[in-house]
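Practice problem. Given the sequence and the SMILES for flavin-adenine dinucleotide, write out the predicted structure.
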Amino acid sequence: MSVAASFVGGQVLLAARAPARAEYAGIVRFLGIQVGKLDVDVRLGVEATASLVLAEGPDSVIVATGAHAYIPPLPGADGKHVVTDRDVLLDVTTAGQRVVVVDDVHTQQGLSTAELLLDSGKRVEVISRLFYAGQDAGVTSIVPLYTRLFTKGVIFSPHTELRAIEGSTVVVANVYSGAARRIEGVDTVVLAMGSRSTDGLYRELKGRVAELYAVGDCVAPRGVHQAILDATRAARQL
Ligand SMILES: Cc1cc2nc3c(=O)[nH]c(=O)nc-3n(C[C@H](O)[C@H](O)[C@H](O)COP(=O)(O)OP(=O)(O)OC[C@H]3O[C@@H](n4cnc5c(N)ncnc54)[C@H](O)[C@@H]3O)c2cc1C
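Answer key:
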């Protein structure tokens, strides 16, 4: 996803593309309507650079540049058939027929991507280092989610970590015994391994504007509640 997005809503709209997650977009719909009622100058498709922001001569700047997907420095992780959960949510056709999803986020994020892939007729194995994938998903979401995933044919491999990607072979290992296993014939590896703050703009603006705030995932990747709370606090200080 380009940083100069043609819509407001960031990761929330991406997450809402997964099955059973459409309501998540309500957050953006509501806030978008509120912004529309107020005199807010929204410029879409524009990358905010430090020089562009400074040229406006602002009294205060709130940076909300979010976070980008994390790709671990593992052998083969730069392969053409290695994509992120965000890539799949944006366009499920980026994935081939046999898919391994690496869940290192432990929330609904990786699992709802797996569900989208299953709905598109893919064979999906989800590996997780934890006792079960999606361990941090809320208890009210995980039961229906697991029900749907098992019904749709998911294969779960818990206490398993990614070691390397060697072409169509994914090398994984048991986190306790270290025993390696080779998953052969994989068309696509989907990394749902969290994100890192997109904080370059904030760093560039530091010391160059009178009042500067960073809010949401660009401070540290967390969740939508924290992003809204950060933003509310910053706005109240202006
Ligand atoms: C698949 C998925 C599922 C998720 N599920 C949940 C969940 O169930 N619950 C939960 O709480 N959280 C969830 N999250 C995380 C949550 O969506 C994020 O924490 C939240 O969206 C962060 O909001 P933000 O506004 O800080 O950043 P973002 O949503 O990342 O928005 C930042 C925006 O800034 C734009 N941008 C960046 N740099 C520039 C620039 N220089 N110029 C112009 N625009 C720029 C980006 O394009 C983007 O539109 C999920 C995330 C993903 C990816």
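Check your answer against the key. The chain has a mean pLDDT of 96.
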